[in-house]
């Protein structure tokens, strides 16, 4: 018997979100659509330059946990915050969503991570992330019993940036597989893929990771190709199950020779793409851990992603479960 459907592991980050013009990105050397890692000095400078902003708990895997919980999944989360105001906000938000979150804080320095996200008129988000306390996450933060009792343990590729997190993830993978569970990862960002391409491929080909989430750009980067069909063929060979999102073109679900296209959810207005991939993973993993068909898993993923991109912020403002019931998916 399992205690949790999904355990997610990631960088515990509070998002600070503001709108801007494309020129602002150019003037400040911000790579559009990417996650840019920054130091303390850069974080202070960009914060000072920001217009009116919204603060919201984020972090890729944290968003996925919150989304899955909103659908009704039993979820848990590992991620490090400091003993400071942003850390309190993050912990409160996770626990208020019904997510099991007990990772211990470690003093006030380094401070809780924050990501300054600039959203342009086309809804694209450009993230500037100061990792802060995230770099302190390590093997001592692994709750072995939680991993053993989770159907799927999911982690973000961004965790390959903080050095000690890799060891923690590999430990979690061993615990999960020793207990007959599965391990999943998201490739996170095409720039992240470029940094760790060989390691990510090894995780997939060695069987350390069973389920992979990627978007079109990440899949192309992983195989260093401009041929998307080739990338789909290769990723289907390298892992047990893959879900590749394609923005308005929906998603492809691949398992061996099986290939399922799921159309995107029809939306009203695109407001902010922050969290789209995270919430796709929420819906997909909710369906997967409930024994739903791969097509239904993809539809749930597209629904969750479609809802979150119609609002500011990476976590659903309303109940995803109610939306899924209304759509006939639950």
From TrEMBL:
Pfam families: PfkB
InterPro entries: Carb_kinase_PfkB-like, Carboh/pur_kinase_PfkB_CS, PfkB_dom, Ribokinase-like
Keywords noted in UniProt: Kinase, Transferase
Coiled-coil segments on the chain, per record: none
Entry keyword Chaperone: no
Top-level taxonomic group: Bacteria
GO molecular function: kinase activity
Keyword Transferase attributed: yes
Domain Carbohydrate kinase PfkB: 57-315
Protein family per UniProt: Belongs to the carbohydrate kinase PfkB family.
Name of this chain's protein: Carbohydrate kinase
The species this protein was found in: Rhizobium oryziradicis
């Amino acid at each position: 018997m399992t205690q949790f459907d999904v355990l997610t592991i990631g960088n515990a980050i509070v998002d600070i979100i503001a709108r801007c013009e494309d020129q602002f990105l150019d003037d400040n050397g911000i790579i559009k659509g990417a996650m840019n890692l920054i130091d303390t000095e850069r974080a202070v400078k960009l914060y000072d330059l920001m217009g009116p902003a919204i603060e919201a708990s984020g972090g890729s895997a944290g968003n996925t946990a919150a989304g899955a919980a909103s659908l009704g999944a039993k979820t848990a989360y590992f991620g490090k915050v400091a003993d400071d105001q942003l850390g309190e906000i993050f912990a409160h938000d996770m626990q208020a969503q019904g997510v099991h979150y007990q990772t211990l804080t470690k003093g006030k320095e380094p401070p809780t991570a924050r990501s300054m996200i600039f959203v342009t008129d086309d809804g694209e988000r450009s993230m500037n992330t100061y990792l802060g306390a995230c770099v302190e996450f390590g093997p001592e933060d692994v709750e072995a019993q939680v991993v053993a009792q989770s159907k799927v343990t999911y982690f973000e590729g961004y965790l390959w940036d903080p050095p000690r997190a890799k060891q923690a993830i590999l430990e979690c993978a061993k615990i999960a597989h020793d207990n007959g569970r599965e391990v999943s990862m998201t490739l996170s960002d095409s720039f992240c893929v470029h940094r760790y391409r060989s390691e990510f491929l090894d995780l997939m080909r060695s069987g350390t990771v069973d389920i992979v989430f990627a978007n079109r750009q990440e899949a192309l980067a992983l195989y260093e190709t401009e041929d998307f069909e080739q990338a789909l063929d290769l990723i289907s060979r390298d892992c047990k199950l893959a879900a590749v999102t394609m923005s308005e073109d929906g998603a492809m679900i691949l398992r061996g020779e099986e290939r399922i296209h799921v159309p995107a959810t029809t939306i009203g207005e695109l407001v902010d793409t922050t969290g789209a991939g995270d919430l796709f993973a929420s819906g997909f993993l909710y369906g997967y851990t409930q024994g739903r068909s791969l097509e239904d898993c993809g539809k749930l993923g597209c629904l969750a992603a479609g809802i979150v991109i119609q609002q500011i912020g990476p976590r659903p403002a309303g109940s995803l479960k109610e939306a899924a019931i209304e759509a006939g998916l639950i």
